Amino acid sequence: MLEQAEGWFRRWFVKVWKARGGGFYALGFAATFIYLEVTTVAGEFVESASLMAFVTEQLIEFVFRFAIDTIRNMVMSFIWPVYWIEWQPPFGAIALGVGYVVFAKYIKQPITDWMFPDGEPVDEKQSGKDDSSNEGA
After folding, report:
1. I need a labelling partner for 55 at 20 to 30 A (CA). Which of 76, 86, 94, 110 fits?
2. Using one digit for the tens of pLDDT, what is the confidence trace for 59-105?
3. Is residue 109 domain-resident?
4. Tens of pLDDT along 9-61?
5. Is residue 136 domain-resident?
6. Half-sphere exposure (Cβ direction) of 28: Cα atoms closer than 13 Å
7. Which residue from 42, 50, 30 is spatially nearest to 66, judged by alpha carbons?
8. Which residues of 20-46 are buried (b: 16+ CB within 10 A; e: fewer)?
């Protein structure tokens, strides 16, 4: 079951990674979204009277409130750099800059290796355009 969960998480993370450009912004978006989702669920659990009440409330309200919270969390994740910059001026902006440098130097390659153990796949559309432009020359 753990392998299945890792596979699901990896597929989700790869989609986010590719959609957000595969860089520091993509990592920040994914980390912010996960953080907001976990804090939302934890907040719901703390507000519940018991575990059974939590499960019952989540089953009943999932479609409405939790889905809306997820959309809100996704929108907030798009602007994650703003949270860093506003965190403690000017230290938030400095932390964002340092985070980018550390990411580029130490973090991006291990994440890429984890997502694509056989090497990063080549985009077929990109390779098709390159081949057709070489044929005419």
Report:
1. 76
2. 677 667 777 888 888 888 888 888 888 878 888 889 888 988 998 88
3. yes
4. 778 777 877 776 778 888 888 888 889 888 887 877 777 677 777 677 666 77
5. no
6. 22
7. 42
8. bebebebbbbbebbbebbeebeeebee
